[in-house]
Design brief:
Helices cover 39% and strands 15% of the residues. The chain is α/β, with parallel strands linked by helices and 382 residues long. It folds into two domains: 183 residues, Glycogen Phosphorylase B (Rossmann fold, 3-Layer(aba) Sandwich); 178 residues, Glycogen Phosphorylase B (Rossmann fold). Strands 3-2-1-4-5-6 form a six-stranded parallel sheet, with helices on both faces. Strands 9-8-7-10-11-12 form a six-stranded parallel sheet, sandwiched between helices. β10, α10 and β11 form a beta-alpha-beta unit. α13 runs parallel beside α14. It is elongated, with a radius of gyration of 22 Å.
Length: 382
């Protein structure tokens, strides 16, 4: 393609809410700016009303917001009108749907205007899909871009779609923010911890819809862990509407002295919390990938994930971390004890600099850009 490519990107949000999809979306736009620096880029954000200072994009990247109507009935119709009218007026060469919810409209635009589109799929948004309009939107896409092999394989099996139509663009992270450092003294002081005290960490939203993350199972494993490691401490970072229920489980298990709720942690402290822990644990069974695994590994931390979801991709099928049965409290507890007592057979767990090197090689931003460049080969001059 010799002309300047026009790319439209439809996203739920980036600025006002910080979750896995939002972080991924921000990296996607930044990578697009570098892979196609001369492209005509127009980003449409359904739920955001304005930018924030913590995320910056190139001045050539035009951003349209629909979030000011979020509390009204007209929110979705206005966003749909925005992207449709812009597609008619600007005639982009490609539309990238940053969520499967946008795919039915993209399919209709393709029928009307023959503008090709991609759909990015993450995890539970695309698993067990039954909505006919979304299935049609998915199957009509020129590319279904999956953030990991686990989600791709599920879509292949559930929707009878060829592997060749679902390329991978795995999650990335900011290797500059997450580095190997000693335990921060200010956090030891804040949470009344000793420098040599073994600390388990989970970073997640404490939302009722996110119970698949596995923090219940860790809490239930604590009594057995405490028998072997009496001064164990479980640090749970995050906030949400599930906290009262979790606190009740802590009291029921009589492990109040072992659990610390850190609550919401600002971005500039997050890496310090990873460095505070001795093992990062999130034995989930509904994660599409899990950027938190990459962040923990970049800080050189032994990491445990579930063996029934996208953690398989993040931990490279058990090469960079340990995959456990997320429903087995005994296995979770025993694995934590093995790691903390330096008895686990996976030697890389105890080599923080090597863990960091490997995760950057596999999932660093440079690799993300290379992966995106490969997908966009038809839209580059080379």
């Amino acid at each position: 393609m010799t002309k300047t490519p026009k790319i439209h990107v439809w996203l739920p949000d980036i600025f006002q809410f910080k979750g896995g999809i939002q972080v991924y979306s921000a990296f996607l736009i930044q990578a697009l700016e570098q892979v196609l620096p001369n492209s005509d880029r127009h980003v449409f954000l359904k739920n955001d009303a304005h930018e924030t200072k913590d995320i910056r994009f190139d001045k050539q990247t035009k951003i349209s917001f629909a979030g000011r109507w979020k509390a009204t009935f007209w929110h979705t119709p206005i966003f749909a009108a925005q992207v449709l009218l812009s597609a008619i007026k600007e005639s982009p060469d490609l539309i990238i749907c940053g969520h499967i919810n946008f795919s039915p409209l993209a399919a209709k635009i393709f029928e009307l205007l023959r503008i090709p589109y991609w759909v990015i799929v993450y995890g539970i948004d695309a698993w067990n899909l039954e909505d006919p309009s979304k299935i049609y939107g998915l199957k009509s896409a020129q590319k279904i871009v999956s953030i990991g092999g686990y989600t791709r394989d599920r879509i292949v099996a559930e929707q009878n779609i060829s592997h060749e139509l679902i390329p991978l663009l795995p999650v990335t992270f900011d290797a500059r923010q997450f580095t190997v450092k000693p335990k921060p003294q200010y956090l030891l002081d804040r949470h009344q911890l000793q420098p040599d005290q073994p600390i388990i960490l989970t970073v997640t939203r404490l939302a009722s819809g996110d119970r698949y993350k596995g923090y219940d199972q860790i809490i239930q494993a604590l009594p057995a862990i405490r028998l072997q490691i009496p001064n164990i401490r479980y640090l749970l970072v995050g906030k949400g509407n599930d906290r009262d229920r979790i606190e009740a489980i802590v009291d029921d298990m009589d492990v109040r002295d072992c659990v610390t709720f850190a609550g919401f942690v600002p971005d500039d402290e997050l890496a310090d919390y990873y460095n505070l822990c001795d093992v990062f644990v999130m034995p989930s069974k509904g994660e599409g990938f899990g950027i938190v695994y990459l962040e923990a590994l970049a800080c050189g931390k032994p990491t445990i994930g579930g063996n029934q979801d996208g953690a398989i991709d993040a931990l490279c099928n058990g090469e960079l971390g340990v995959l456990v049965n997320p429903d087995s409290i005994d296995e979770i507890g025993e694995t934590i004890v093995q790691i903390l007592m330096n008895q686990h057979s996976l030697s890389i767990l105890y080599k923080p600099d090597l863990l960091r090197q490997k995760v950057i090689e596999k999932y660093g931003f440079e690799q993300f850009k290379q992966n995106l460049s490969y997908l966009l080969a038809d839209y580059t001059d080379s």
